[in-house]
Design brief:
about 80 residues; alpha+beta; 2 helices; about 25% helix
Length: about 80
């Protein structure tokens, strides 16, 4: 689906990770969600929120993207 089409389908993805005490690790994971396999930023992917709980050492990163881009990211993992 082209990004120029009206009615672009968006989806949100919640990444739950077992890390909150090392902020740089959480930030690097959030940055990686924005990049393709060549290290270039996807223009249709955004990090909406990062919530970290240091007591439980857990973080949730919320990303939004076109459905097609999320499928691509899942297939890269």
């Amino acid at each position: 689906m082209s990004s120029s089409r009206v009615g672009l389908r968006l989806a949100a993805c919640l990444l739950n990770i077992s890390e909150a005490r090392r902020k740089y690790v959480v930030e690097n994971i959030a940055k990686a969600a924005l990049l393709d396999k060549n290290g270039k930023k996807h223009p249709q992917v955004s990090v909406l929120n990062i919530f970290s709980n240091q007591d439980y050492n857990r973080s949730v990163i919320t990303i939004a993207a076109s459905v097609d881009k999320l499928v691509d990211k899942c297939n890269q993992a």
